[in-house]
Structure formats: structure tokens, C-alpha cells
Design brief:
The protein is built from six helices and twelve strands. The chain is an alpha+beta fold and 229 residues long. The chain folds into two domains: 87 residues, 2-Layer Sandwich (Pseudouridine synthase); 133 residues, Pseudouridine synthase. Strands 1, 2, 3, 4, 5, 8, 9, 10, 11 and 12 form a ten-stranded mixed β-sheet that branches. Helix 1 packs parallel to helix 6. The two termini are 13 Å apart.
Amino acid sequence: MQQPVNEFALGKVLLINKPLHWTSFDAVRKIRNLIKIPKVGHAGTLDPLATGLLIICTGKFTKKINEYMGMEKEYTGTITLGATTASFDLETQPENFKDVSFLTEEKLQTATQQFIGNILQVPPQFSAIKKDGKRLYESARQGIEVKVEPRPVTISVFELTKIEMPVVYFRVVCSTGTYIRSLANDFGTALGVGGYLSSLCRTRIGNFALQNALSIESFEKEIKEKHSL
């Protein structure tokens, strides 16, 4: 049974498939405009170049955001080997090109093992983490490198699902706070050729799955149909 639009104020959890090039806040702003209530927030940022599951909480359920943010995450995507980027993804241009022809599947699979378990990870310079009251990406875009301490994260699965050199396809299951961009960069470093994240999709947060998420267009259509009843 369809819920009246004003019931969003009582609290709902919306599963949205974030489009490519949208910021997480773009999605929140769009939902807020559609459901006409001010209390809307998301549980875990996705970069503009990532797609996939974004949990959006409305009304009284915004109190649950931290609970959802702390849940295990699953991602799929691609790492391009043989070059690096300053942002660890395609926000900046690839550079430092290297030959990858010597890399065998065995070498690639073996290199994943050092990143599985409880590890220390340095967040990317191009991230929203604050240092001395300023977000890292603000300094990075000014060409200023800020020293960031490594952080403990847990990666329970890092598997290569397909290899089409120089691109490798992966699936990762990890704790909150894990940067897949950093994993891509560190994986390339471990192989001696560099690497950057070339695509990313979040497929799961806790028990919430991408397959149950709505596109922005589908959600907008649903809301307009409710208005017309």
C-alpha cells in the first residue's frame, strides 16, 4: 500500500541508486525537494565518480544515520594498473605510466592477500576528512599535501573477479571508514606499477542491498503518482 507523502516526516529509510557524477548531497537535495520536508540526510558518502547504494533517512529516522553508517559495506569496481593519479581515481589525470606486461594472474591474486584483515590505511589527500578545521580535498586542490595518520580498517574480502589488463575487476567487503581509492592506490604500489580506481559501485550496506534500491527517476515518478491520487 502506498504511503502518503507527509508520512516521510514520521521517518523512512530510502534506498537510492546514486547516479554517476552526482554528489551524495545532490541526491539528498533532490529527495528533500520531492518530499517537501527539511529533515533528510544520507548514511555514508559516495564520491561523485561512484554509483550505487545510498541510504537516505527522512524525518525522525535521521537519528538512525550513525547506526547505518557503521555497517559493513560491499563494493564492486575496477582498478586500472600501470599509472597513478593524485586523487587515486579519475578526478585527476593519470600519470607515471609503467609497463604491466610482466604481471601474471598469480602475482595479482597474491598481492590482494596483504590487504585482507585488520590493516592500517592512509586516507587519500582528496578526501572530506578534516585536518586543522580544513577538508583535505581543499588543500589538495591547492597543491598542498597534508600529513595524515594511517587509520585502522578491516577488509574481510578483496577478490579479483575478472582480469583484462591493465584493468582488474574486484569485489571488496570492508568496515566503515575504508577508502577503496586508497586500496586501489596501495594495490598498485604493492605490484610496483601504480594503480588507480577507475570505477566503483556500492552494492551493499549491512543487510541493505543495491538490488532493492530505486533510481532517482523511479522515486520521483512514485512521488508524483502519490500526489495525483
